[in-house]
Design a protein that fits this description.
two-stranded antiparallel sheet, 8-stranded parallel β-barrel, TIM Barrel, alpha/beta
Length: 338
């Protein structure tokens, strides 16, 4: 991983410094780029909120080979991780590699390691086109995310996504804050409950709604038919000064009441971070920037290596907290101060 990170740093040419701790300090305000919007407070909040939680260490038990696998939306994952939908290499990553090579390498590496990757959307069209082509290349083992476009564009892309062979689709409604798309003549916008029901009802694919940060919107999303939600502030790239995902996750997860899959995306860097978010109410997590580093620095093999590193870290944290399986994780692994 050290060699992968070194190569990525060179290829990013300053758009990502590949810091020892990816916490948004150095890249504040660098949007486009890999940073967080404005002061970068939302990006940093994701990392600091997660870091506040500590583990209860337990070692009087028989857990030596924990089960890290999980079933999500009909798919079995070797670890409870999805590579988040990050695209736009030319805008955000200094053309570190061609868009089509980037997304294909990410999805292939994820498949090799027993998990799934997600593809992004945006302007120009080659971003989603590269993603759709990559999903076809991995025989549907990828999840396309469509932005909340206005008018016919959204429904057209839903139909095109269905042709890739995937059984799952997502919409990152948190991308409604990307003003640059409106300025480019391709507006995105929030959706009413009635609009969401129409969008979700348009497809037979399982539907993930990404960008839920409050309990009331979690209930609305499920009522509208979402099969899964992603607790996410879009990596801190659309609204400054939001809370971190780990801060809101317990309340959001409780509001869902098991009626939908709960994913969490924000500040996850290690296997221990994965375990923390599972304990706080997530069924699985999404990881963004570190997968971009692994892809740019090592291609398909770099992605698979990063996933293996996460699995090793997760298994170690599970042994050290007495957690036999991912499905058995609960709040008891988290230290609660008196």
């Amino acid at each position: 991983m050290k060699e992968i990170r070194k190569a990525a740093k060179e290829r990013f040419q300053g758009t990502c410094r590949v810091c020892a701790v990816c916490d948004g300090q150095v890249c504040s305000g660098e949007v486009p780029g890999m940073g967080g919007l404005g002061t970068g407070a939302s990006f940093r909040a994701n990392v600091t909120a997660l870091a506040r939680y500590r583990f209860n260490m337990r070692l009087i038990h028989d857990v030596t080979e924990p089960d890290t696998s999980v079933q999500i939306l009909g798919e079995t994952l070797d670890i409870p991780v999805l590579a988040a939908p990050i695209g736009g290499v030319s805008f955000n990553m200094a053309d570190a590699m061609p868009e089509e090579d980037y997304i294909l390498s990410k999805l292939q590496g994820c498949r090799d390691a027993g998990i799934m990757g997600c593809t992004g959307d945006g302007v120009p069209d080659f971003i989603h086109q590269s993603g759709f082509a990559a999903i076809r290349a991995v025989e549907g083992k990828g999840i396309p995310f469509i932005k909340p476009w206005e008018d016919e564009e959204l429904f057209q892309k839903l139909d095109l996504a269905a042709e890739t062979g995937t059984g799952i689709i997502g919409m990152d409604i948190d991308a409604a804050g990307l003003i640059t798309l409106r300025l480019m003549g391709r507006p995105v916008s929030p959706k009413t409950p009635a609009q969401l029901k129409e969008i979700i009802g348009h497809t037979d694919m399982k539907f993930i709604l990404k960008g839920i940060m409050t309990p009331d919107e979690a209930r609305l999303a499920v009522d509208c038919g979402a099969d899964a939600i992603v607790v996410s502030n879009h990596g801190g790239r659309v609204l400054d000064h939001t809370p971190g995902v780990a801060e809101v996750l317990p309340a959001v997860s409780s509001a869902v009441e098991g009626r939908a899959v709960v994913l969490a995306d924000g500040g996850v860097r290690t296997g221990a971070d994965i375990l923390k978010l599972l304990a706080l109410g997530a069924d699985a997590v999404m990881i963004g920037r570190p997968f971009s580093v692994a892809t740019v620095g090592g291609g398909r093999e770099g992605v698979a290596k990063y996933v293996q590193t996460l699995k090793t870290q997760l298994a170690q944290a599970m042994v050290m907290t007495g957690t036999a399986s991912v499905s058995a994780v609960d709040r008891s692994v988290i230290f609660e101060s008196m």
